[in-house]
Input
Amino acid sequence: MARMKFICDTERCIECNGCVTACKNEHEVPWGVNRRRVVTLNDGVPGERSISVACMHCSDAPCMAVCPVNCFYKTDEGVVLHDKDVCIGCGYCSYACPFGAPQFPSQGTFGVRGKMDKCTFCAGGPEDNGSQAEFEKYGRNRLAEGKLPACAEMCSTKALLAGDGDVVADIFRNRVLKRNKGAEVWGWGTAYGSRSEAREGSKS
Amino acid sequence: MKRLTSLTLICAATLLSACGEKARTVGADAAPYTGPVGAMSTFAAPGWKAGDKTTWEQSMKVRAQYGQNDHAR
Output
């Protein structure tokens, strides 16, 4: 099995916030904390795009690198998790994360003494799988129940894909091919422009 | 003397009245709840057994395809 990953298909995301609602409901996330949120680029302008963002469970996670108390760990499936019993709530991970994933709730067991909280890929924490202690600190552990994250399973347009990186990449690749599109839909060329365009730009 | 006899009879009847009561036992009742068998059985995906890695990986792949790949349906 490869690493667990999220992919959000911006051609499909309709900014319904179903993923956000599913996450909050599944884990009973307190007020003011969003483990997942939908970001819209060029809002209101024709061609606007929305993307659902949470912890991306990076393969080389910057939060893990900067944590002074080493509270982060990675599961066999590549899910980046953290131990709230070790976390000191310093916020370094929040500065390091490019996605703004770490949250700092102030209420309940979720945020006791300012501990950090983030998306767990519905994989809970270091406590026993499915235990009450795990639920109170981290929410449900759906992976241990043989299920995928609630946000992706609830996505109405299936814009948000979650699961084994190879599988979700394959699903996305198939979609792009069915749309008669190539690499220009998403990837290096879209983000940085093609080499020929760059050459033309430098001539003029 | 008569009064004493009748008083004794009344007391005896009162005290022994409980002996005539039929024993009441709980009939066919549902077995008491003993909690889920295995930690995750209540919420686990149907057809998957906790602790079996190979089946889990297969189950995740099938779930990802069935739930998310609408071109494969």
